[in-house]
Specification:
49% helix; oxidoreductase; 259 residues; binds NADP nicotinamide-adenine-dinucleotide phosphate; oxidoreductase activity; globular; NAD(P)-bd_dom_sf; SDR_fam; Short-chain dehydrogenase
């Protein structure tokens, strides 16, 4: 397989579009998500349109055994990934005290543990080969506290901190680590997070998942450390460094308070 890229959460949204962007650049793909029917139709589309090889794997990445089995399967297939894209993630708009613990535990497992575990599994091979890319999808949520999506925002702050740290460790190895921070983006995210009505997402001209994917792929290829999508989001992320954390929490609370 040509310069294979592993993409988690490739059945919809940003991951789906990242698969298209990577295939257009000639990369073979290994795609994982739970809805394998969607992965299989994407595989058929990309193999026909782009002539690249695409492998799919149905798996729930909140499960540690599944992650290990997926890694072992890629090893058995002889896949030496050029890049790992940890994209799968979700949020949930609710007061924390009323949160569904099972859902929030799954969020922590997916947004934090799966991303960390897969990075740990694939990184040594990349370092040994002297070449590789890690692209971890965080969010502009990484820069501030997020009342009513407290666990989600905190999980993305983890992704940013973790990725910055390993990027520094990886200097000189030929492997880079990039954090992609999209702002609100058209995808299934809002519906899954029960956040469609939140003021945060009531913006005109929300970027498409394709725009974010194109930007993220380019940042990964450049080995950029942090890639915040969009001029307004870049300015807002800079602004978060100047304002008190309480002010940031108050503003986000106003934007996300459920009706
Ligand atoms: N859209 C936004 O406004 C926005 C903004 C900032 C950051 N982000 C981040 O961007 C990333 C992609 O989200 P998106 O906007 O593209 O949302 P999306 O359309 O809901 O896509 C999420 C993807 O994650 C996969 N996934 C969810 N749970 C999974 C699990 N347990 N195991 C394996 N795969 C799982 C889903 O596939 P299956 O359901 O088939 O498993 C789907 O392919 C996420 O990390 C999200 O936090 C999104």
């Amino acid at each position: 397989m040509a310069k294979p890229i592993i993409i988690t959460g490739a059945s919809s949204g940003i991951g789906y579009e990242l698969a298209k962007v990577c295939a257009a650049q000639g990369h073979g793909l290994v795609l994982i998500a739970r809805r394998e029917d969607l992965l299989l139709s994407l595989k058929a589309e990309l193999e026909t349109a782009r002539g690249v090889q695409v492998l799919t794997y149905r798996g729930d990445l909140t499960d540690a055994d599944t992650r290990q089995q997926f890694f072992d399967w890629t090893q058995a297939q002889g896949i030496a990934p050029y890049a790992l894209v940890n994209n799968a993630g979700f949020g949930d708009l609710t007061a924390f005290a009323e949160a569904d613990w099972a859902k929030h535990n799954a969020m922590l497992q997916l947004n934090i543990v799966a991303l960390t575990h897969l990075t740990r599994l694939y990184l040594p091979g990349m370092i040994a080969r002297g070449q590789g890319r890690i692209l971890n999808v965080a969010s502009t949520a990484a820069f501030l506290p997020g009342p009513y999506m407290a666990v989600y925002y905190a999980s993305k702050a983890y992704v940013l901190s973790f990725t910055d740290a390993i990027a520094a460790e990886l200097e000189g190895t030929g492997v880079t680590a990039t954090t992609l921070c999209p702002g609100p983006t058209e995808s299934e995210f809002q519906e899954r997070a029960a956040a469609k009505d939140a003021k945060l997402f009531a913006i005109d001209n929300m970027p498409t998942a394709a725009e974010v994917a194109t930007y993220g792929y380019a940042a990964m290829e450049k080995g950029q450390r942090t890639a915040v999508h969009g001029t307004v989001n870049k300015l807002l992320s800079l602004g978060t460094r100047l304002l008190p954390r309480k002010t940031l929490a108050d503003v986000t609370k106003g934007l996300q308070k459920p009706a």
